[in-house]
Amino acid sequence: MVLEMKDLCVDFTGMRGKVQALRNVSLSIHKGEILGVVGESGSGKSVTALSILGLLGSNAHISKGEISYLGRDLLSLGKKEMQSLRGKKIGMVFQEPMTALHPTMKVGNQLAEVIKRHREVSKREANLLAVQALREVHIHDPELVAKKYPFELSGGMRQRIVIALAMSAPPDLLIADEPTTALDVTIQQEILQLIKELNSKRGTSVLLITHDLGVVSKVCDRVMVMYAGEVVEEGKTEAVLNAPSHPYTEALLHALPDRADPGQPLQAIPGEVPDLQNRPVGCAFASRCSKAMDICSVSAPALEPVSGNRSAACWLRGTRH
Ligand code: SF4
Ligand code: MG
């Protein structure tokens, strides 16, 4: 097991008081596996990632739970230890590549600097390895690109460079939070393909956060669906997408473009994510669920095994819709 999270609860304290951003979130990532975390914005996907990376802000508080990385308890690590783990053992790729790049430093130098931090190599060797790293993320003419500044490159190129930076240590786990959301559709496919290729070539485990089940179906071995800070369904990608056990997963699938009639606008899921400050007593999805029953607004269903290796948190669980 590369990463294991158990019953994580995270609260945020804001102007309006305390908000429970994560409620009993558990997940595991095996060696070489790609786990997709899917859900609308505000479902807790990014908070889950930031918790693992030790990058939650000072207004966040982990009130319960455990995170272990290759058997090490991450929540007991000091700032320095966590810092050295990040980048070296756990790589990060975010939505906007510019946030991860130094704006006034040539990309080759940025890569060489990171490589020197992780490996005992000379400056010359680091420069050669930087060009090699660019080649591995399929950048044509890497010698030329190494001499460019980030602003001289396209968004897709920048994201490739961020991936090269993240993979340079190389890490055992790559956390990618909406890595393709800001890119053109064709570039999105290429970046996803690249992540999948690095995963299979190097055996790097990946936590891939996305709001798009289409992305999950193309890339992920397993998927975890989040709603209002909770895991509502989890299982092997094919099983979950072929026959979802949770009405929210089903609604996300119906919102996929290729399911919609050609020329028709995308079907959005009616209603809104509940205000986490005033979390409903029962199932958080009840106000938007077409299958809601009396019990749903009274009592919240727990995440429980449905069949095989999958789980769902729904009073209808185990039944076919
Ligand atoms: Fe819908 Fe009830 Fe299942 Fe919640 S528990 S998803 S409201 S059927
Ligand atoms: Mg997010």
TrEMBL record:
Keywords: ATP-binding, Cell inner membrane, Cell membrane, Membrane, Nucleotide-binding, Translocase, Transport. GO terms for molecular function: ATP binding. It is found in: Cell membrane. Its main location: membrane. It holds the Pfam family ABC_tran. The keyword DNA-binding does not apply. Gene3D superfamilies: P-loop containing nucleotide triphosphate hydrolases. The keyword NAD does not apply. SUPFAM superfamilies: P-loop containing nucleoside triphosphate hydrolases (SSF52540). It is a peripheral membrane protein. Residues 3-253 form the ABC transporter domain. Belongs to the ABC transporter superfamily. This is ABC transporter ATP-binding protein.
